[in-house]
Design brief:
The protein is an all-alpha fold and about 625 residues long. The chain has 37 helices and no strands. Helix 10 runs parallel beside helix 12, helix 30 packs parallel to helix 33 and helix 33 runs parallel beside helix 35.
């Protein structure tokens, strides 16, 4: 392995304080190799020096190379990890985290990777939770690398199974908790028949901490098993965990059902018999924490049942939707907020009929919920529900139109922004939502700049939806031009970015007659005023010219008009304006049309060369250079 490979992450900077904490002299330290310095810090330094050394562990490993790392560094790390009493927890966490960088960069052969297993086993038995969690992450990382060499040599499978048995059979709960996190990936790697039975022992352990860990990862193991015949062995313990006396166990068991994925979708009869009853019970559990956990993963659990699109299971789909409705109407705000985040998923899962029968009656209550988070997520949900073609346009306008109008008038900007940020997806339906359009116009004067930016992004789509006459007569003066001159740059840029949509919708002739005169008037008026307005107009010209290039063949002189105005900006007295003009020219010099290429060769390139020769500002020079390079690359 090449020693030039750099480890991931950034090493801490050198520290004189750390060097002084070591008993070794400065001359000796400067002559030490990476591994010797590492050992010196670990053996003789204070805690700060040891932490610093552990953070540099990848640097040491990559400096040694694969061979020396295995012969020198790994034995030392094993000794460090296995020593009694154990070293500080902070060091063990760092050790586990940094060792992930060894695989596969330095250790890619299965036998080499297996050298880390004793360290993982030891770290998985430490009392401190963060150490164990990092050990589990390291083991799963090793499994992910080993699976690329599957099937594994039986001689390598045996140590992994033996380690699992020792962890599961340990006297103290800490090792068992780690085993619960490791066993799903270990089974996915080895397919060893003993591992599900070991996991079953964890599920019925008398210690609640162990049962919690087993419940948390049970779904991953069911997914790894991959067949209902194998999964039947674990279904009884899943049912037992889902009805455990401890709600902290039940909530994790319920959430784990989402980890199963679509493995059992081809067997809906099986999921109806074993999974659906657990879903039904959890949706009405007396503990709000169980209902909350189910709400957070409800869409994933519903999709894993395999009922979608199968006429035989229409009644079962209706039952699932009824469970979802009960969560949407829950007395706890946290449950409602988590459930409504899956509203769009369930709309697409159930289809139009189930939406009308189950979900539509709840929407007014959700839209008027006293908790802002519920309303905000509901606003986003109805926008996402409108996509994908699941609901007909007429149903969207009738059902969502009044709600969208209500959201736009909400007292909290977060709710308004959820609609404004997604309303362009419904632009083809806005002709039937007069109240929504009126609300958008009123919001162009909002005090919150994020709301004004959202309106600015929507206005070009309103031109597409309501027609050019509506834009020119209703939107131009009170909204578009006002937002184009907004004091907040992000709002002005939103208008600039919408120029491409306007060009596509309106065409060059309309833009030349309606938009260009307004922009020229604003620019001329700002020549003695704010240079920021001149910059905005130049950016708008550049975006317009670029949009014309992307829609060739429509005729007109719009592109040439924009270029002339940008060239005028090259002579501005303010350097920032000249820089923006040069950046705008960089966008138009890539045109392919013969007439446009002729203008580029005869006017734009000479203007850029002249400006570069006369320019004194470094940023302007750089912008001119980039524009010339873009022109020459064509």
């Amino acid at each position: 392995m090449s020693q030039t490979i750099a480890p991931t992450g950034v090493s801490p900077p050198p520290s004189i304080t750390l060097a002084r904490s070591l008993s070794t002299g400065t001359d000796e330290l400067s002559g030490m190799g990476p591994f010797d310095l590492y050992k010196e810090q670990m053996d003789n330094g204070n805690t700060e020096a040891k932490v610093d050394a552990m953070k540099r562990l990848p640097v040491v490993a990559f400096a040694l190379g694969s061979a020396k790392m295995q012969s020198e560094l790994l034995p030392y790390l094993k000794t460090t990890a296995l020593q009694q009493p154990p070293i500080e927890d902070e060091l063990l966490v760092l050790m586990a985290k940094q060792m992930e960088t060894f695989v596969p960069a330095l250790l890619n052969d299965p036998k080499e990777i297996m050298e880390l297993v004793p360290i993982v086993e030891r770290l998985g038995s430490i009392e401190e939770t963060v150490v164990r969690n990092q050990a589990v992450a390291l083991m799963n990382h090793l499994c992910g690398s080993l699976i690329k060499s599957a099937p594994l040599d039986p001689a390598l499978v045996s140590p992994l199974v033996s380690m699992s048995k020792r962890l599961v059979g340990a006297d103290w709960f800490t090792a068992k908790v780690s085993a619960a996190g490791m066993l799903p990936e270990l089974y996915n790697l080895t397919k060893h028949a003993d591992l599900p039975y070991l996991y079953k022992e964890l599920c019925v352990d008398e210690t609640p901490m162990v049962r919690r860990a087993a419940a948390q990862h049970l779904g991953k193991l069911l997914k790894a098993l991959g067949s209902k015949e194998k999964a039947n062995e674990l279904i009884p313990v899943l049912q037992q965990l889902a009805r455990d006396e401890q709600d902290s166990v039940r909530m994790l068991a319920v959430a784990s059902m989402a980890d199963v994925g679509d493995v059992y979708c081809s067997s809906p009869e099986w999921t109806k018999e074993f999974i659906l009853p657990l879903l039904k019970d959890a949706s009405t559990d007396l503990s709000w924490r169980v209902r909350h956990n189910l709400s957070k993963v409800f869409g994933g659990v519903a999709q894993s049942l395999g009922f979608q699109g199968k006429a035989k299971f229409v009644n079962d789909q209706s039952l699932v939707m009824a469970c979802f409705v009960s969560l949407l109407a829950d007395v706890e705000a946290e449950v409602r907020a988590a459930a409504v985040a899956h509203f769009a998923t369930m709309v697409h899962w159930g289809g139009s009929d189930l939406f009308v029968n189950h979900l539509l009656p709840l929407l007014p209550a959700l839209a008027d919920d006293v908790v802002m988070e519920v309303r905000s997520k509901c606003a986003l949900a109805i926008m996402e529900s409108s996509e994908g073609g699941t609901l007909e346009d007429t149903l969207i306008v009738q059902s969502f139109g009044p709600l969208i109008e209500s959201f736009l008038q909400d007292e909290f900007q977060e709710v308004q922004l959820q609609v404004l940020g997604n309303l362009h997806k419904l632009s083809h339906l806005l002709h039937g939502m007069n109240g929504v359009v009126s609300s958008i116009l009123n919001m162009s004067k909002a005090t919150n700049w994020r709301v004004r930016r959202g309106v600015a992004k929507l206005l070009p789509h309103l031109a597409e939806a309501r027609g050019l006459d509506f834009f020119a007569n209703v939107l131009m003066e009170p909204a578009w031009l006002v937002l184009l001159l907004d004091p907040v740059a992000c709002v002005r840029i939103a208008c600039v970015e919408g120029m491409s949509v306007l060009v596509k919708v309106a065409g060059q002739e309309w833009m030349s007659q309606q938009i260009m005169p307004q922009h020229v008037r604003i620019y001329n008026h700002a020549e003695a005023g704010s240079y920021l307005i001149r910059i905005t107009i130049l950016q708008a010209h550049a975006e317009t010219a670029k949009a014309v290039q992307e829609n060739p063949g429509s005729g007109g002189s719009l592109w040439m008009d924009c270029v002339n105005h940008i060239l005028k900006g090259m002579e501005d007295k303010v350097a920032n304006v000249r820089m923006v003009a040069a950046q705008g020219l960089a966008k138009v010099v890539t045109a392919d049309e013969p007439d446009q290429r002729a203008v580029i060769e005869s006017q734009i390139i000479p203007a850029l060369e002249k400006q570069l020769a006369d320019e004194t500002d470094m940023d302007c020079q750089a912008a001119c250079t980039e524009a010339l390079e873009a022109a020459q690359s064509k």
